Amino acid sequence: MKTNTAIRWISGLGLALSLAAAAQAVEVGGLKFDDTAKVAGKELKLNGAGVRVRIVVKVYAMALYLTEKKTTTAGVLDSAGPRRFTLGLLREVTGDELGQAFMAGITANTDKAERSKFVNQLAQFGEAFVSIPTARKGDVITVDWVPDTGTVMALNGKQIGEPLKDVGFYNAVLKIWLGDKPVDSTLKPELLGSKG
């Protein structure tokens, strides 16, 4: 009887250890990001992660999740299915500051014609950030592309704003980090998984 109990205990321990190994996380800027994320019922894989540094200050850690690995900007922007990027804040920042930084990044990486297609979505996106009085160190912002729903943004798991329907808008947001004039030139290759 004791032998059977010991065997069950050992096999249970082995299962627990294998599950722990399967749910590995990567540490970036002191924050942990899971190797996978579930969006719209699909499991996404971590494409890359890194830290956004402004001058010498670490602002946030970021992770990009896709259905399959992509190493180019074009590959990421053309990828089918759901997508996610996650920002883990490394310092306190106001929603207004975040919104302005996002808008500046979009403006730097899109032309006027492209932005004119998303005027309403840009306004709604800005309003969503204004609804965040202060984001604190350790807060997590997720921005998902959900097919047939749109861009869905959440702060600490709570949705902010309404879904924004156009995938082109989601791509315009991704260009903040992956465009020709990325907000942080060292973060771009990390998100594309081509560094480290």
UniProtKB/TrEMBL annotation:
Keyword list, A-Z: Isomerase, Signal
Domain of life according to the entry: Bacteria
Transmembrane segments annotated in the record for this chain: none
Identification of the protein by name: Chalcone isomerase-like protein
Species of provenance: Roseateles saccharophilus
Pfam families from the UniProt entry: Chalcone_3
Organism classification: Bacteria, Pseudomonadati, Pseudomonadota, Betaproteobacteria, Burkholderiales
Ranges for domain Chalcone isomerase: 25-193
Any GO molecular function: intramolecular lyase activity
Keyword Isomerase in annotation: yes
Signal peptide: 1-25
